[in-house]
Amino acid sequence: MRKVVAAAFASLDGVMQAPGGPSEDPTGGFTHGGWTVDYWDEPMGQFMGEIFSSPFDLLLGRKTYEIFAAHWPFVEGGDPTAEMFNSVTKYVATSSKEPLAWTNSVALRGDVAAEIARLKQEDGPNLLTQGSSILLQTLLAHDLIDEFRILIFPLVLGQGKRLFGRGTKPGALKLAGTTVSTTGAIMSVYDRAGAISKGSFALEHPSEAELARRERMKRED
């Protein structure tokens, strides 16, 4: 079986749109493209190197695929990331009938969640997402992500496409590793940890004021 590993850059308020440049994705009037660039340092490069250190196939949404396909095949000078991305299989969630020109690209059409669930049952390397905020919402809604590798940057963007949307299924995570860059980015690995465990810090015998507060909340809801 294969795991789906979601790797993403996110701001402190969960925005992941256009981290690499102003022209990546200005849709929705997003004007902060390129917000990760000034934070890049050696520990961040090492964290990304660990993500790519095990065999993987890429699992991408159409827009991220188009960004990558217009960039990585044209990087010269033996860049190791370009060589990796150009050689691996790219699974692309798309409703377009247009052919995928980047070598080793496979379109996932129709019921994308079912297609990815089928891929997970096969033998092969893990399926690694990059960006792909819309695809991530499908993966989250269908509980298909096994591991998160998230880089949280110390800034607030306010608007933009978000890592966790409204359709995300609740669930607990277990921190498997974390490090901090010299520029303040927090880089963490999380594994799935089942259902959310709940408890309460409330008094065993609530006060009259607390009971009244609860009643007000019910009326105002």
Automatic annotation (TrEMBL):
- Gene3D superfamilies registered for this protein in UniProt: Dihydrofolate Reductase, subunit A
Q: Which residues form a coiled coil?
A: none
Q: Name one GO biological process term.
A: riboflavin biosynthetic process
* Segments forming domain Bacterial bifunctional deaminase-reductase C-terminal: 2-184
InterPro entries found in the cross-reference section? DHFR-like_dom_sf, RibDG_C, Riboflavin_Biosynth_HTPR
Under the heading Pfam families, the entry gives: RibD_C
Q: What superkingdom heads the lineage?
A: Bacteria
- State one molecular function term (GO): 5-amino-6-(5-phosphoribosylamino)uracil reductase activity
The protein, known as: Dihydrofolate reductase family protein
The species this protein belongs to is Microvirga alba
Classification from the root reads:
Bacteria, Pseudomonadati, Pseudomonadota, Alphaproteobacteria, Hyphomicrobiales
